[in-house]
Task: structure prediction
Amino acid sequence: MEQIRSAEILCVGTELLLGDIVNTNAALMAERLAAFGIPVYRQTVVGDNPARLRTALEEAYSRADTVFLSGGLGPTCDDLTKETVAEYFGLPLYLDEESLERIKKYFSDIGRRMPDNNIKQAMIPEGAMIFRNDWGTAPAICIEKDRKTAILLPGPPVEIEQIWFNRVEPYLHLRSGSVIRSKNVHILNMGESAVEEVLRDMMLAGGDLTVAPYAKDGEVRVRVSARAADENTADALCDKAIEKIRETEVGSFIYGIDVGSAENALLIKLRAAGETLAVAESCTGGLLAKRITDIAGCSDVFAGGCVTYSNEAKMRLLGVKHDTLDKHTAVSAETAAEMARGVRLALGTSMGLATTGYAGPGGGTPEDPVGTVYVAVSTAEGERVKRLSMSPLRSRAYIRYSAATQALGLGLGLK
Result:
């Protein structure tokens, strides 16, 4: 079977153009095609319009040999993807009795009568391969003709995901000559431009290995990708490149590989050491605890936290001294240290994290303007505090999120 050399993704649906729904189908297809080593250089979204879809299809085939389409396989009159693609290939449609029986059974299983217009979904282009849909009504379709391939998939994400992994990927295994594996290097406290400056030679080297930095939510992610004949070889190439990155000045800012987030990295670290965590928050207002508890299974590490917005709450719940607040104010290194120590002792954990600062838009002082945040970590060895100075032009949400990330970074042992 001939290898797929290049592909494009074409998603159909006016609701996508209007922003009514998020196009998760394109993300799924792009990610999985990359894993098979199939290059995708363009994605297109077109509304439920046959003429525009035909034009988009012609343009896609001028650049690629395979087009993956999602949407427009429904039973209504505006679902015309299949008809348009069949016309492009010059293929008549026929009623596939097996597909029709599956659709009838689908409706029978849910206790509903099948509307007559669902018969339309069993009309298949002549000579096409059918990918059975056991999760909905519209079968997926693969057309191979004139050294071009079209794979038509239903639009509902719950259907396309199941069909993709259970039907499409076995087909792709037959047509892909290599695989691409990627690993993500997570970096905190070093900007994207600084990372790029250090890793530029690796980024420009080309070949079967690519290194690319991306700014992401107040941190940087470097994606290392390798193309090879099999997954083990590709993984080995990625690992070798990551070791090379660790040997540069970027290495001291790396907090994990494929850990997803700073909060997950901290949970992994503490769990491995048999340690526990508690948090005390002022300006972040519970965001730090939320990010931690968003991760399923965190309860074996995370004991809980305190949102102590007022000075009285800081004193009563965390044991922050009145003299500390009076002399240094609530937004200070001293207060942050006492908050972190106080919550660690109160909840009996091995680590405590704390945040206090001015998230804006109001507040602040000439010495500590809006964007000033102190984050602290407390362990049995003592406390460490970091002062953050973010632009007062930054949004309140950005300052709060970045403060939480920096607190997690202290817990991970970063500078």
